[in-house]
């Protein structure tokens, strides 16, 4: 193997931009055994608040993990196999949405991109209650990642 260029660290601004461009990432939570649990999720990045939000149901194992140990990380692939961003921090799990249009339901609704908003908002909010949806809020205190500048 020949020696090529070293990966370059991405700036906080570039990492935030990468998080904002993508929609899916791999969330790592910590099992009781101390081993990581990985799951791919759709996410919403709020760069001003430095919070990553995920919609999930209250019965998911990741929710149980986070209630026991809030440390988590989100890995997001860049535009090529050589670049990535990781957002680390502590997560909190919201209460379950129980009444259509409650604060959790509204937060879940706001996470949907404008072009994908449901036509029947009331029915959507009822569905969130039926599914026992919660919001995971990952409060990011560390961003890191790299890119490798090579010709493909």
Describe this structure in words.
The model has no long low-confidence stretch (mean pLDDT 94). Helix 3 packs across helix 4 (121-130). The protein is of the alpha+beta class and 152 residues long. 24% of the residues lie in helices and 38% in strands. The longest helix has 10 residues, at 12-21. The chain contains 4 helices and 9 strands. It is globular and about 60 Å long.
How would you characterize the largest beta sheet?
Answer: 7 strands, antiparallel
Helical amount among residues, as a percent range?
A: 10-25%
Distance between the termini: 16 Å
Rg estimate, integer Å = 17 Å
Low-confidence region ranges: none
Q: Could you say which overall geometry the principal axes of the C-alpha atoms support?
A: globular
Which strand order does the major sheet show? 3-2-6-7-8-5-4
For the secondary structure, the number of strands is 9
Instruction: Please tell me the overall pLDDT.
Output: 94
N-to-C SSE string, H for helix and E for strand:
EHEEEEHEEHHEE
List the total number of helices.
Answer: 4
Strand content: 35-45%
By secondary-structure content and strand pairing, the structural class works out as alpha+beta
